[in-house]
């Protein structure tokens, strides 16, 4: 198993994969925002939510559905900004995962990653990380 990566490149590849995996798991989890409503604990992420209110038309009241679920459709996401956040965060996670998997393949395949490809991959990782940081509010643009 020959590799075109240096020792630092191999470490970078594994750390990149771990970070990409953590970002993807965080993207799919509904625990971005935590709070309470109708005296119940609620949480939601970009396209999933747990313990959410639903209008019961028969009783003319609002009841809490105490389970996790996705929005019925993309248009059911509450606002345009939230839809944009879902798309941009998903793209950021996808870019991070693509680069991390390519770097891991570079650990196993000789001459897969040249210096130029490594620089391009680092740039893509930077953009993917920037998208995630901007959307999560960690970085103001």
Automatic annotation (TrEMBL):
Chief localization: membrane
Keywords in alphabetical order: Membrane, Transmembrane, Transmembrane helix
Protein origin, superkingdom: Eukaryota
Family matches, as Pfam families: L_HMGIC_fpl (PF10242)
Any one GO CC term of the record: membrane
Subcellular location: Membrane
Signal peptide: none
Transmembrane segments: 12-34, 84-105
Membrane topology, as annotated: Multi-pass membrane protein
Keyword match Membrane: yes
PANTHER family: LHFPL TETRASPAN SUBFAMILY MEMBER 6 PROTEIN, LIPOMA HMGIC FUSION PARTNER-LIKE PROTEIN
Protein name in UniProt: LHPL6 protein
